[in-house]
Design goal:
By secondary structure, this protein is of the alpha/beta class. It has helices at about 30-45, 65-80, 100-105, 120-125, 135-145, 165-175, 195-200, 210-225, 245-250, 275-285, 300-310, 320-325, 330-345, 360-365, 365-375, and strands at about 5-10, 55-60, 85-90, 110-115, 150-155, 180-185, 230, 235, 255-260, 265, 270-275, 290-295, 315-320, 350, 355. It has two domains: about 5-250, Alpha-Beta Horseshoe (pyruvate-formate lyase- activating enzyme), CATH 3.80.30.20; about 300-375, Arc Repressor Mutant, subunit A, CATH 1.10.10. The protein is globular. Bound molecules: iron/sulfur cluster.
Length: about 375
Amino acid sequence: MKTGLYCHIPFCASTCDFCAFYQEKPIRSDLNAYLSGMDLEFKTLGSNQSIDTIFWGGGTPSLLPAKDLERLGKSMLQSINHDFKEWTVEMAPSTVKKDKLAVFKAMGVTRLSLGVQSFDQDLLTHLGRLHNTNQIYKAWELIDQSGIENTNIDLMFALPNQTLDQLASDLKEAHRLGASHISTYCLTFEEDTALYVKLSQGKLKLDVERERMFYEFTWDTMKSLGFEQYEISNFSNSKETQCLHNLNTWKMNNWIGCGPSAASQVDKMRYRNTSAISSWLNGLQSNIPVREEEIKLTESILLIDSLVFGLRMNQGINLSALKAKYPSVTFFDSIDDLMSRLVDEGYLNCSGDRFVLTREGQLKCDAIGSELMQLG
Ligand code: SF4
């Protein structure tokens, strides 16, 4: 089975207003503890473990100085095969530097993902992002010169006060810069974020109809720009530039997470490393990794997750193939009934064994996912 390696780099210079991820300020002692822990965790990977894809995410991976990135990369490469197909690193515009890009290129990074969110300075300020528009362009110039050709730009939409014209400018700008992949995320209000506080105080309002309008506008604009949508939030300029690491995850293959708070799905188990750097490091040093949310994966769980994540992809799901893959599941009749109802209601298209969400279905994919999860 294909296996991805996810490395979590949990450091951020400041906290964005919409962010609910675990992250720490980059204090030297914590960075050193983190790097020592990663050395130990990489050694646990096992020499016969074949890695297909690598993803360094955060936090802000590119916040680390070049010498730390090099140490982390070399440590990882000592523990894994070198014939992986993809290695993505997430970068924040204010942290992109020539020496870090040179380290990435020399170590074999194949893909860079820049967290732009918007090119509009006012919108960036309201999101609490640390970077400004000038830094985005400077970062992109360096990425362009780095020799790493596979590039993603992350954008957000349905931001407070954002207009469709502003969104159109963002999408067109990402295309004009030459990104081979663009991810577009609808703003969500997670608990314990600054935006959620504003929502609870009535300073912001949830507007489902507005979100729907932004989704549809994004999908139409991306199509007109020549990008193919392959997942609700992901677009590429060719099949070759789709993100293999994410595809592997959505198809419920294996992935191993290294680093504080990183999740893994491997050997029919799913778990998350503890978040605090000190307890994560202590666990690794004493050979008893501290894990949370550990569950044994049954065929029922894997089937439901394959349906929920599979339907988010434009290729949809092959129900017969899933029935053959998870033969011990006992509630296929209920799934067949739900699929038939979703087809009748215009949310799903069915062609042979394959089910694909219609546009209405894509707009309702969270609700459809909830219905599926109730069957499991
Ligand atoms: S850079 Fe990413 S992980 Fe860090 S605070 Fe902002 S959204 Fe969260």
